[in-house]
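Form 7-S
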Amino acid sequence: MSRRWGLPLVFVVAGLAFWGGTRLASTPTRVQGTGPTEAQVRRLAKLVVLRVQLAEVIEGEKAGARLAVVVKGDCDLATDLGAARFLSKDPARQVAVIELPPPTPDRPRVDHDRTWVYRLPPRWSVFGTMVELVAKPQEVLLTEAMAAAQQRLEAVVNGHDYVDQARRHAESVIAGFFREAFDWTIEVRWSDGKAGSSNALVAAR
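Output:
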Protein backbone atom coordinates (compact mmCIF):
# COMPACT_ATOMS: atom_id res chain seq x y z
CA MET A 1 0.00 0.00 0.00
CA SER A 2 2.86 2.33 0.65
CA ARG A 3 3.96 1.94 -2.96
CA ARG A 4 0.44 2.70 -4.26
CA TRP A 5 0.00 5.97 -2.24
CA GLY A 6 3.56 7.13 -2.04
CA LEU A 7 3.62 9.03 -5.36
CA PRO A 8 0.21 10.75 -4.91
CA LEU A 9 1.24 11.84 -1.42
CA VAL A 10 4.38 13.40 -2.84
CA PHE A 11 2.28 15.36 -5.34
CA VAL A 12 -0.15 16.46 -2.61
CA VAL A 13 2.65 17.71 -0.34
CA ALA A 14 4.36 19.45 -3.24
CA GLY A 15 1.06 21.05 -4.28
CA LEU A 16 0.41 22.35 -0.78
CA ALA A 17 3.92 23.75 -0.56
CA PHE A 18 3.54 25.47 -3.93
CA TRP A 19 0.12 26.90 -3.00
CA GLY A 20 1.40 28.15 0.34
CA GLY A 21 4.51 29.70 -1.20
CA THR A 22 2.45 31.38 -3.92
CA ARG A 23 0.04 32.80 -1.35
CA LEU A 24 2.87 34.12 0.81
CA ALA A 25 4.56 35.64 -2.20
CA SER A 26 1.36 37.35 -3.31
CA THR A 27 0.67 38.82 0.14
CA PRO A 28 2.16 42.34 0.26
CA THR A 29 4.70 42.96 3.01
CA ARG A 30 3.96 46.05 5.04
CA VAL A 31 6.92 47.77 6.65
CA GLN A 32 6.12 50.77 8.82
CA GLY A 33 9.10 53.03 9.49
CA THR A 34 9.78 54.86 12.71
CA GLY A 35 9.87 58.20 10.95
CA PRO A 36 12.57 60.87 10.74
CA THR A 37 15.58 60.69 13.05
CA GLU A 38 17.91 63.20 14.68
CA ALA A 39 20.76 61.84 12.55
CA GLN A 40 18.87 62.77 9.37
CA VAL A 41 18.27 66.26 10.74
CA ARG A 42 21.97 66.76 11.53
CA ARG A 43 22.87 66.12 7.89
CA LEU A 44 21.06 69.37 7.03
CA ALA A 45 23.39 71.46 9.23
CA LYS A 46 25.06 73.36 6.38
CA LEU A 47 21.73 74.07 4.68
CA VAL A 48 20.17 75.88 7.65
CA VAL A 49 22.95 78.49 7.92
CA LEU A 50 21.80 82.01 7.01
CA ARG A 51 24.59 84.34 5.86
CA VAL A 52 23.94 88.05 6.38
CA GLN A 53 25.82 90.73 4.42
CA LEU A 54 26.49 93.89 6.44
CA ALA A 55 28.03 97.35 6.15
CA GLU A 56 28.90 99.40 9.24
CA VAL A 57 30.88 102.56 10.03
CA ILE A 58 33.33 102.39 12.95
CA GLU A 59 35.08 105.48 14.30
CA GLY A 60 38.14 105.31 16.52
CA GLU A 61 40.48 107.70 18.28
CA LYS A 62 43.82 107.08 19.96
CA ALA A 63 46.58 109.49 21.05
CA GLY A 64 45.29 112.20 18.76
CA ALA A 65 44.83 109.97 15.72
CA ARG A 66 41.31 109.51 14.37
CA LEU A 67 40.02 106.96 11.86
CA ALA A 68 36.68 106.18 10.26
CA VAL A 69 36.37 102.63 8.96
CA VAL A 70 33.60 101.72 6.54
CA VAL A 71 33.38 98.02 7.25
CA LYS A 72 31.84 95.53 4.88
CA GLY A 73 31.55 91.87 5.75
CA ASP A 74 29.23 89.05 6.64
CA CYS A 75 28.22 86.88 9.55
CA ASP A 76 26.45 83.54 9.71
CA LEU A 77 23.43 82.71 11.82
CA ALA A 78 23.64 79.00 12.53
CA THR A 79 21.18 76.62 14.19
CA ASP A 80 22.90 73.87 16.18
CA LEU A 81 21.18 70.78 14.78
CA GLY A 82 23.33 68.60 17.04
CA ALA A 83 20.97 69.66 19.84
CA ALA A 84 17.81 68.85 17.85
CA ARG A 85 15.37 66.42 19.44
CA PHE A 86 11.98 65.07 18.43
CA LEU A 87 9.23 65.81 20.92
CA SER A 88 6.70 63.51 19.24
CA LYS A 89 6.22 61.29 16.21
CA ASP A 90 3.00 59.88 14.76
CA PRO A 91 3.88 57.25 12.11
CA ALA A 92 0.22 56.65 11.27
CA ARG A 93 -0.33 60.30 10.33
CA GLN A 94 3.31 60.84 9.35
CA VAL A 95 3.66 63.99 11.42
CA ALA A 96 6.35 64.93 13.92
CA VAL A 97 7.33 67.81 16.19
CA ILE A 98 11.00 68.73 16.57
CA GLU A 99 12.64 71.15 19.00
CA LEU A 100 15.64 73.26 17.94
CA PRO A 101 17.88 75.74 19.78
CA PRO A 102 17.61 79.32 18.49
CA PRO A 103 20.08 80.49 15.82
CA THR A 104 23.24 82.21 17.06
CA PRO A 105 25.92 84.33 15.31
CA ASP A 106 28.85 82.39 13.94
CA ARG A 107 32.11 83.41 12.23
CA PRO A 108 31.75 87.17 11.69
CA ARG A 109 34.12 88.15 8.87
CA VAL A 110 35.41 91.54 7.77
CA ASP A 111 35.95 91.76 4.02
CA HIS A 112 39.22 93.69 3.92
CA ASP A 113 39.08 94.12 0.15
CA ARG A 114 35.80 96.02 0.41
CA THR A 115 36.55 97.85 3.68
CA TRP A 116 37.67 101.48 3.46
CA VAL A 117 39.73 103.35 6.05
CA TYR A 118 39.55 107.15 6.25
CA ARG A 119 41.98 109.24 8.25
CA LEU A 120 40.18 112.01 10.09
CA PRO A 121 41.85 115.28 11.17
CA PRO A 122 43.01 115.25 14.81
CA ARG A 123 40.93 117.11 17.35
CA TRP A 124 43.92 119.20 18.39
CA SER A 125 45.49 120.37 15.16
CA VAL A 126 49.12 121.12 16.07
CA PHE A 127 49.41 118.99 19.19
CA GLY A 128 47.58 116.09 17.56
CA THR A 129 49.84 116.16 14.53
CA MET A 130 52.92 116.12 16.75
CA VAL A 131 51.60 113.17 18.75
CA GLU A 132 50.88 111.28 15.54
CA LEU A 133 54.41 111.89 14.27
CA VAL A 134 56.02 110.72 17.52
CA ALA A 135 53.72 107.92 18.74
CA LYS A 136 52.37 106.76 15.34
CA PRO A 137 49.17 105.33 16.85
CA GLN A 138 47.39 104.75 13.56
CA GLU A 139 48.48 101.11 13.17
CA VAL A 140 47.28 100.25 16.67
CA LEU A 141 44.09 102.21 16.11
CA LEU A 142 43.42 100.39 12.84
CA THR A 143 43.88 96.98 14.52
CA GLU A 144 41.50 97.99 17.31
CA ALA A 145 38.98 99.35 14.79
CA MET A 146 38.99 96.06 12.84
CA ALA A 147 38.44 94.06 16.02
CA ALA A 148 35.59 96.40 16.99
CA ALA A 149 34.14 96.03 13.50
CA GLN A 150 34.07 92.25 13.82
CA GLN A 151 32.29 92.49 17.17
CA ARG A 152 29.87 95.00 15.69
CA LEU A 153 28.97 92.63 12.85
CA GLU A 154 28.17 89.89 15.36
CA ALA A 155 26.06 92.25 17.50
CA VAL A 156 24.04 93.51 14.51
CA VAL A 157 23.35 89.99 13.22
CA ASN A 158 22.16 88.98 16.68
CA GLY A 159 19.28 91.46 16.34
CA HIS A 160 15.74 90.11 16.35
CA ASP A 161 15.03 90.69 12.65
CA TYR A 162 17.98 88.63 11.43
CA VAL A 163 17.44 85.90 14.03
CA ASP A 164 13.79 85.59 13.01
CA GLN A 165 14.85 85.29 9.38
CA ALA A 166 17.24 82.50 10.37
CA ARG A 167 14.42 80.72 12.23
CA ARG A 168 12.13 80.83 9.20
CA HIS A 169 14.97 79.64 6.98
CA ALA A 170 15.70 76.63 9.21
CA GLU A 171 11.99 75.76 9.46
CA SER A 172 11.59 75.91 5.68
CA VAL A 173 14.65 73.73 4.98
CA ILE A 174 13.78 71.02 7.51
CA ALA A 175 10.06 70.87 6.74
CA GLY A 176 10.66 70.93 2.99
CA PHE A 177 13.29 68.18 3.09
CA PHE A 178 11.18 65.69 5.05
CA ARG A 179 8.07 66.49 3.04
CA GLU A 180 9.77 65.87 -0.30
CA ALA A 181 11.98 62.93 0.75
CA PHE A 182 9.71 61.02 3.14
CA ASP A 183 6.24 62.59 2.85
CA TRP A 184 6.34 63.57 6.53
CA THR A 185 5.03 66.83 7.96
CA ILE A 186 7.43 68.44 10.44
CA GLU A 187 6.57 71.20 12.89
CA VAL A 188 9.52 73.10 14.36
CA ARG A 189 9.44 74.40 17.91
CA TRP A 190 12.19 76.47 19.51
CA SER A 191 13.78 75.73 22.88
CA ASP A 192 13.54 79.40 23.92
CA GLY A 193 9.75 79.28 23.63
CA LYS A 194 9.57 81.25 20.38
CA ALA A 195 6.67 80.04 18.24
CA GLY A 196 7.36 78.41 14.89
CA SER A 197 5.92 79.76 11.66
CA SER A 198 3.38 76.93 11.30
CA ASN A 199 0.68 76.00 13.80
CA ALA A 200 -1.07 73.54 11.51
CA LEU A 201 -0.28 70.51 13.63
CA VAL A 202 -1.42 72.21 16.82
CA ALA A 203 -4.78 72.95 15.23
CA ALA A 204 -5.10 69.40 13.92
CA ARG A 205 -4.73 67.79 17.32
